[in-house]
Amino acid sequence: MMMDSEEREGLVVPTPTRDFEEGLENLRRYGLTIVPDALSARQLMEARDALYRAAESDAQRKRSTRFSLDYETDLSNRRVWNVLSRDPVFEDLAFHDIAVSHVKAMLGWPALLGNLSANITGPGGGEMILHADQIFVPEPWPPVPQGLNVAWCLDDFTDENGATRFVPGSHRLNRAPREDELQSETVAMEAPAGSALIFESRVWHKTGHNRSRNIFRAGVFGWYHNHIYRPQENWFLSLRPEIRQFASDDALTLLGWKSEGLGLVNGMSPA
C-alpha cells in the first residue's frame, strides 16, 4: 500500500531552521527537521578529525565494520561503533543542548541514549535497505515516536555523496515499509557540514548511494529512545569511566545511570 499525496506531503525536505517550535512542526509534518550551524567551526573540525582517525585505527587493526546491501563486495561504507568512548569531542555531540531539547520535546523524560555510532560512505558506496528504526516495537505502532535520531553532518550531506534519504510523511503510517514498498521514492537529507539532521524513529529512511568519484561523507548518529526499551549499546560495559564520573544530570539519565522508576538499585537511582 503506497501513501497518497496527502499522507506523503510530496518529496519535500523542510527548510533548515534554528527556530525550535518550527523544527518541532517539521518533525510532526515531515518526520525530519534540519538545524543549520549546529556545531561551531572548532567542534566540527575536532569531531571530523577524531572520527576519521578512529576509522583509520579500526582499519589498521582489522576491526572495521561494513554496511550496505552487499557486505561482501562493497568495501566503501564503514561504521564506527561507540564513538562516545573514542574521543571526548563526541560527548559534546551526544549531550548537546540541541539533541537533548528535541529528545525531551519528542519523547518526554527520562529517555535513554541507545547508541552513538558513525557512518562513513566512500565513493561508489552502495545504499542500505529502506527501513524505520523502531522495528523493535510491535505493530501497529503508537501514534507517537518511540525514538529519535540526531545525525551530525561532519561532511556536507549531498544527493551525490550518499546523504541519508527518507520518505517524507511516512512516519504517519505508524508501521515499517512492506516488501513492495522498499523501492519507494525517497529524497536526500541534504545539509552542509555542521548541521544536525533530526528525524523520528517511524520515518522510512536509508543511506544513499555515493555516486561521487572522490568524496567521502561522514555522519555521527545519536539514537535516543523511550526509557522502557533496552539501549543498543551496553554503556555499563563499553563506556569510558571518566564520562560517567564527570557527566551532567541529563547525561547520567541518558546513559541509564540516573533512573526514575526503572533500572533502580535497591529501590533507588544508582546515581
Describe this structure in a few short sentences.
The protein has 271 residues and is an alpha+beta fold.
Total helix count? 8
| CATH superfamily label | q2cbj1_9rhob like domain
Please state roughly what percent of the residues sit in beta strands, choosing from under 5%, 5-15%, 15-25%, 25-35%, 35-45% or over 45%: 15-25%
Percent helix, as a range, is 10-25%
Question: Unreliable segments (pLDDT under 50, ≥5 consecutive)?
Answer: 1-8
CATH topology: Jelly Rolls
**How many structural domains?**
1
Could you tell me the radius of gyration in angstroms? 18 Å
* Structural class by secondary-structure content: alpha+beta
Element-by-element helix/strand order: HHEHEEHHEEEEEEEHHH
Q: Give the termini distance in whole angstroms.
A: 48 Å
CATH class value = Mainly Beta
Strand order of the largest sheet: 1-8-5-10-4-3-2
Gross geometry:
globular
Largest pleated sheet: 7 strands, antiparallel
Write a structural description.
The protein has 271 residues and is an alpha+beta fold. It has one domain: Sandwich (Jelly Rolls). 25% of the residues lie in helices and 18% in strands. It is built from eight helices and ten strands. Strands 1-8-5-10-4-3-2 form a seven-stranded antiparallel beta sheet, covered by helices on one side. The chain is globular, with a radius of gyration of 18 Å. The N terminus is likely disordered.
Topology record:
Layout: H1 5-8, H2 20-30, E1 32-35, H3 41-60, E2 65-66, E3 77-80, H4 89-94, H5 97-107, E4 111-121, E5 147-153, E6 165-166, E7 187-188, E8 196-200, E9 205-206, E10 217-226, H6 235-238, H7 241-245, H8 249-254
Antiparallel strand pairs: 1-8, 2-3, 3-4, 4-10, 5-8, 5-10, 6-7, 6-9
